[in-house]
Design goal:
single chain; alpha+beta; Endonuclease, Chain A; four-stranded mixed sheet; 5 helices; 25% strand
Amino acid sequence: MRNVRDDVTMSNDHKQLASTIGNLGVPYEVECLADDGIFSVDVFLTDADVAIEFDGPTHFINTYDSDAAPRTTKTTKTEMRDMFLLRRYRTVLSVPHFELDVPRGSAEKRAYVAAKLGAVGVSIPGST
């Protein structure tokens, strides 16, 4: 519980994600505590009951098959976090660092984030 109150850090990518959500006109809070005070989420969409977690490199492991390309999967700790958060929020949306880093311009980032939000039923104000 102390970590969710006192040991909060936001990466530049985390800040950029929150800023992009705000630019889309979706109400949000950053580093929002769950009602039980045990968990903190990176971004909480206040009108949609959606918890968004920006997952940096430490949230993934890479596995290698002999004939296949590397496969990136969430760590067990990250999977458990998502499971616990799903008991507290309607939806948990993970934004992997390697997906957010792909779009280069602000318009592309906005489109990426809008598509991620739309996929979990969040409507973007002013979009058709």
